[in-house]
Amino acid sequence: MVRGIVRQQWGAALQLLVVGFYVAFSLVIPTGIGFWIDKRAAHEFPLFTLIGLGVGTLIMIYGVYRMVRPFLQQARREGKEGQIIRPIRTFLNILPSKQKEEKDRNSD
């Protein structure tokens, strides 16, 4: 029983490590290629570096989404969707200070 739990924890840690490396490399490699092209082109504005950063960001977002999607689907099948969605909704529902003040005034 304990070994199964430990294996699950190591599996989750390994998957997080893979996601971390994926994020780092998907940003560094295209940005580095863009930087190299900018140095070869010898112009002042870092156009290709910025393009590389943008392309790397798109690659990162798509890749992380594809890595996380099976976990979300499994949680939905097991009925644990609320455990995943609730913290996200709480984070997204942080109100700006003016709206929060209005809400506090209306509740009094």
Description:
The protein is an all-alpha fold and 108 residues long. It is 88% helix and 0% strand. The longest helix is centred in the first third of the chain and has 40 residues.
Which key terms come to mind for this protein?
0% strand; flat; mainly alpha; 108 residues
Shape descriptor reads: flat
pLDDT under 50 segments (min length 5)?
none
Distance between the termini: 52 Å
- The pLDDT mean sits at 79
Largest sheet: none
Oligomer: single chain
Measured as a percent range, the helix fraction is: over 70%
SS strand fraction: under 5%
Q: How many individual helices?
A: 4
The ordered H/E elements are: HHHH
Q: How many structural domains are formed by the residues? A: 1
**Could you give the count of β-strands?**
0
Helical/strand content category: mainly alpha
Q: Report the C-alpha radius of gyration, rounded.
A: 21 Å
Q: Could you outline the blueprint of secondary structure elements for this entry?
A:
Layout: H1 2-41, H2 47-78, H3 81-92, H4 97-107
Quick gist of this model?
The chain is mainly α. Helix content is 88%, strand content 0%. It contains four helices and no strands.
